[in-house]
């Protein structure tokens, strides 16, 4: 405490401790971390351009004398100066400035400035340019600009990188054979070029990452990732799981009781999963299929096999509505066959929750369907043998690992089998690169009788026509969805938008039964609305994206997505998949507000041009990158910092090819390579 004021003293950190904390925020702790903390871009400070050669949009460095400088107060307080050389004049402006900067800009002083050139009221200008002394010798190499964090200057970061490079181990982790085969330059040479580009190095090659130094780094990153996946696969094969071989006729009874026949694609996938479940190491299979392709019934067969073998099955879905949809279908198929199905979500009341948890712990509940409530600490399984994750990319990596660990018994000696399901098909390049350790099954055909959905793009100025189409559809005995726009700024604002939209539509369509559903409703209320819609007691369901996955109402044949330009491509495809689930020709109307951004135009064009989920996924990958598909976006962990799935497919193929050679002939090199590149990332790849 301070004797004078009685207030607590704050212990100020030393500059060195503060610097260390900021470096650690970037994951920079050991010299090896700094070595692969590579520049985002480079600044060319090796040359001076004449002011007369400047043009708007350029980033340039110029040198001249200050003609005059002053603090101006219109339109707001700012520091203004004019720099002149023999070819012209350049305006300089600072909105935020210090007295020391004013002294630096004294009239007649020679200065060197660097910044982006813009068109101003009085000619060309730079706003907040970097200022230096005209007497400083020009560097003979490009200046690296590193990824940084608040309070950490480029100068401090460059100095820390320099110190690390002087002490770090830059020995090569690739054997000569691999270097020769793929024509790669040595690691230390690549690292030094990227941290200190020589004057002769092409600026464009560095920026576009086409220089041999970048090729080496991208190959290293892809190889490390592939080695880690191969190691994960080998480790999984070495783990033990209970072989789940059917002991009774539950599977045959299930097949006989279904009111439809499985498609050829479904039969193939059921057989693949059945073979996996019978093995003594954990299944780790991804089941992918387009919306409406029939993944749930495949999961039912997997569950039936596990239950027949005496194990429990947990099915976890990302939303309560999707979990309810699974409960509805699986209960209808399996409960008449004597299977005890339990339900566990966050919205369950205390008494029902305790009963469900007791049934799960004592083994009475054989199939447990739920949301993230399944991974709570208090939930104990009696004998969890199979975990099914629906829309697996919607869960964080940690959540997937938590559910899997619920089945470890005893003391981690036996692991549960795991089936991941996704209606967002994985593009080929992503499957090869990030799912190389997974077995992938694809349901590549829709059930018979399904017609492709017609997609229409309509400007919101034609809203009256859209309302007429809703009325026409309902008069034919069918139902419709009206999805409200995504409001990123606020969940409360999005809810208000849904409420307002519902009120407007109810007023505009007084002859129709219009209802509203959204994520903030109580579970029982949501269930009641969805059941009424399934039963045909609601004509038009106004909804937020809560209906994005899992809603299956065959009589719904019209989907209107308002402000479609605000949605992502995968989300639009999922929403469209809520219709087209019966034999009636279905229509999806993407209502947009002009003008559209370039990205929005690309998305809407993709939706108009194809209903193929695999093609949609490929285009979505181009636009968004792999994080969304893998469910690691929320982790903040970049999956590939340097390589790109768009442009480096050939390198990825070479890295995959090199894995077998490295693991078989050069295991020590492989281990050293992963230590350099994969620290802290293995769990993300193994989940």
Walk me through this protein's architecture:
This protein has 687 residues and is α/β, with parallel strands linked by helices. 40% of the residues lie in helices and 18% in strands. It has 25 helices and 21 strands. The protein has a 7-stranded parallel beta sheet with strand order 11-12-10-13-14-9-15, sandwiched between helices. Strands 16-21-20-17-19-18 form a 6-stranded parallel beta sheet, with helices on both faces. Helix 19 links the parallel strand 20 and strand 21. Residues 1-11, 627-638 and 682-687 have low confidence and may be disordered.
Q: What is the topological layout?
A:
Elements: H1 15-25, H2 31-35, E1 41-43, E2 59-72, E3 78-85, E4 88-94, H3 99-104, E5 110-120, E6 123-127, E7 130-133, E8 143-145, H4 154-167, H5 176-181, H6 187-195, H7 203-207, H8 212-238, H9 250-257, H10 264-277, E9 284-289, H11 295-308, E10 312-316, H12 320-334, E11 341-344, H13 350-362, E12 367-370, E13 384-390, H14 397-405, E14 417-422, H15 428-434, E15 439-443, E16 454-459, H16 463-475, E17 479-483, H17 491-508, E18 514-517, H18 523-534, E19 540-543, E20 556-562, H19 569-576, E21 587-592, H20 598-609, H21 613-624, H22 627-630, H23 649-665, H24 667-677, H25 682-686
Parallel strand pairs: 4-6, 9-14, 9-15, 10-12, 10-13, 11-12, 13-14, 16-21, 17-19, 17-20, 18-19, 20-21
Antiparallel strand pairs: 1-8, 2-3, 2-5, 3-4, 5-6, 5-7
Helix pairs in contact: 6-8, 8-23, 8-24, 9-11, 10-11, 11-12, 20-21, 23-24
